[in-house]
Amino acid sequence: MVLVHAQSTDQHSFDKVIRPLSKDFTVYAVDCFGHGKSAHDPSLYNIVSLGDALVRFIEDVVGRPCALLGHSSGGLIAAYAAGKTQLCELLILEDPPFFSCQGERRKKTFNYLDLSSICHEYLQGPADESFVLFYFENQYAWRFFPEKTREKMRPKSIASARKFLQKHPEKDLKVPFWPKTALAAFVGMGSYDPRFGEAFYDDSFHCGIPHEELLSEIRCPALFMKAKTDWSDDGVLFAALDEDDLAKCLGLISDCELVRFDCGHGIHIEKSRDFVSAIKDSISRVR
Asked: Residue 245 in contact with residue 226, Cβ under 8 Å?
């Protein structure tokens, strides 16, 4: 099984599920370009370069039929690769942002208003602090706090984050009283290149390939894991994709099983046992 992480994190995002998965699979967890220990080269921050590299990894390193799992943007990359190699026997899509992150629609999504825009803003400035701290200071999540609570909590939390990063620059961010599920977004962020987020901000990541084309080239069975869908009052999508997007995905992939999870975007973090169980059930179905 090959695991492809979401943007801004790295292979260690999957640490919670690797051990239970390894009881049944030989597990490979990769770092995408711009993340972890992989090349930090903006010319590679697109679905073709990433997808072709993943195909080479599967064919040259794994060398046998495998299950390929991609979370969020990793799901886009995994879908591209699944359409290019005969060795993918099952494609597992963990809440990927099909259709919603492409074109003008991307501007009304949480990812665009949060990570993508923060990356863009960071790159426009003097960059006199780490991206991790800059992201923590400016993340969209602050808007979810009541104003009085935010005014009281934000400066103290930022000060705690700054102190932690000064003392432990090599570690993933920890902030007292900050939700564990929210801190999961910071796993591996210390080695994340914000120019990767810029590729989603300016829509260059997709290389002009419509997601309809990407999905129609998938020939292997697929498992689609869908997290909750929420909207803001002003129409911002607080999810990877909406129900209409999901219906299009299921219509374009010829053999696709759907499993829903009552949780946020990081299904493998919030619902790890159900996540592993769904994978094992799907593998049994395919075989």
From this structure: no
CA nearest neighbour of 268 among 83, 8, 19, 101: 19
Q: Name the residue with tokens 């190699």.
A: 85
pLDDT of residue 285: 85
Q: DSSP letter for 170, please.
A: T
| Closest C-alpha among 57, 52, 81, 61 to residue 69 | 81
Q: What is the 3-state secondary structure (H, E, C) of 51-117?
A: HHHHHHHHHHHHCCCEEEEEECHHHHHHHHHHCCCCCEEEEEEECCCCCCCCHHHHHHEHHHHHHHH
Of 245, 231, 206, the residue nearest 93 (C-alpha): 245
The pLDDT tens digits of the residues spanning 193-241 come to: 999 999 999 999 999 999 999 999 999 999 999 999 999 999 999 999 9
Distance CA 136, CA 162 (A): 9
From the list 233, 203, 187, 255, the residue with the least C-alpha distance to 97 is 203
